Amino acid sequence: MISLAGRDILHAWGKFIFTGIGLGLLIGVTLTMAGVYRGMVADGKALLDNSGADLWIVQRDTLGPYAESSSVYDDLWRGVRAMPGVAAAANVTYLTMQVRHGQRDVRAMVVGIMAGNAGDPGWPPYLVAGRQITRGHYEAVADIATGFKLGDELKIRRNRYNVVGLTRRMVSSSGDPMVFIPLKDAQEAQFLKDNDAIWMQRRRTAANPAFNRPIVPGLLEAILDSQTTNNYVNAVLVRLARGYTSEEVAEPIRRWKRLTVYDRSQMEEILIGKLIATSAKQIGMFLAILAVVSAAIVAFIIYTLTMDKIREIAVLKLIGTRNRTIAKMIMQQALALGSIGFVVGKIAATFAAPHFPKYVLLMPADSIAGFFAVMLICVLASLVAIRLALKVDPAEAIGG
C-alpha cells in the first residue's frame, strides 16, 4: 500500500511538490516566530548574565531598572559595599535612545558604568576588539550589532564619544544593542537638561518672590548649582561574597536602606514573566492561528487530491480493496505532504533567522515538537478526505 500511495503521488508530483513547498514556507514562518520568542527570552537572560550581578538594588516599590524607571542616590554603593557578604557593588544607569553616527541613527541601550576594571558589575565581560574604557569621559564600548567600528565617533545627546572597544551579545531585554560610556557622562545624558532649559529654569528660580529676600544666605546659589549636577543612578549592582546567600545579603539592605532588592530568579521573573509577557501572548496567538491555517491548507489539498481520484477509489472498492487500505493510502499522502513541508520550513527558517533584526533562537527541541505537531495536523486534516473516500460507491467505477 506504500507503493500505491507513492504511485499516486508520482502521478501528480508537480502539484504535490509545489503544495509541499507552500506549506513549508508557512511552517517556516511558524518556526521563526517560535524562535523569536526564544530569542527574547535569551536576550533577557543574556542581559542578566552580562551584568555580572547577583543582586539589583533599585528604588523602593519599583520593578527597575529594566521594566520600570528607578532612581537611587549615587553614593549608596559605598554603604552597600561595606555590608557583610558584599564582594563588589557598582552604580549603573540604563537609557534606551537613538545614538547618532554620522548621518545614521541606531537605537541602543546606553549603559553608564563606574570607573573600575573589566569584570566589575556592569562592565562588558569580554571584548572582541579594542580595549575597555580607561578615561572618565567621552569613550565608548559598543556591541557589534550596532554596526559601529573602532575609532567611530558617536553623538549621545550633546557630547561626542570615541569607540575604543567592541563587544558581542550585549543587548537589552528588547534586543537593542548596548553602548557603554562612563557613568558621569551617562548621568548627564539621562538626567540633566539641555543648556536652554537650565537657563530658563534659572530665570524662573531667580524671579520667584520666595528668593527675593535673603532669608537663608547662599540658598539661591545652592539651588542654581543643583540644576547643573546630578546625584542619581538607576540601580546598584551587587556581587555576593563566597559563602553568602542572596537572602542573607538582601534582607539587611531592604530593612536598613529602605530599598527594593531583587535576586537573579526574581529579576528573571520580571523580565520574562512581566516585561515580555504581552509579546509572548501575541506570538502564542499567531502560532495558534498558523496551526489552524496549516491544518486547513493540508485538509483542502488532501481533499482536492481525493476528489481528483474518486473514480480510482471506486475501482479499488470494486475489486475488493478494504476501507482500511484506502484510508491508510490517504493518510500516508498527508504525512508525506507534511514531511516535505516541514523539511522546506526548517531550511527556510534556518536561512532566514540570521537576517531578522531581532535575535532568533531556533532550538532543536522546538523543531522536534514542531515536526510531531505537523504530523498530528496532517493526520487530523486527512480525516475529512478519508470520510469522503469511504462514502464512495463502487458503482461509480462503472457508471462514470
Automatic annotation (TrEMBL):
Bilayer topology term: Multi-pass membrane protein
Residue intervals of the MacB-like periplasmic core domain: 21-253
Protein name: ABC transporter permease
Domain of life from the UniProt record: Bacteria
InterPro entries to which the protein is assigned, alphabetical: ABC-4/HrtB_transporter, ABC3_permease_C, MacB_PCD
Keywords, comma-separated and alphabetical: Cell membrane, Membrane, Transmembrane, Transmembrane helix, Transport
Gene Ontology CC: plasma membrane
Membrane-traversing stretches: 12-37, 283-305, 334-356, 368-390
Subcellular location: Cell membrane
Span of domain ABC3 transporter permease C-terminal: 285-394
Entries under Pfam families matching the protein: FtsX, MacB_PCD
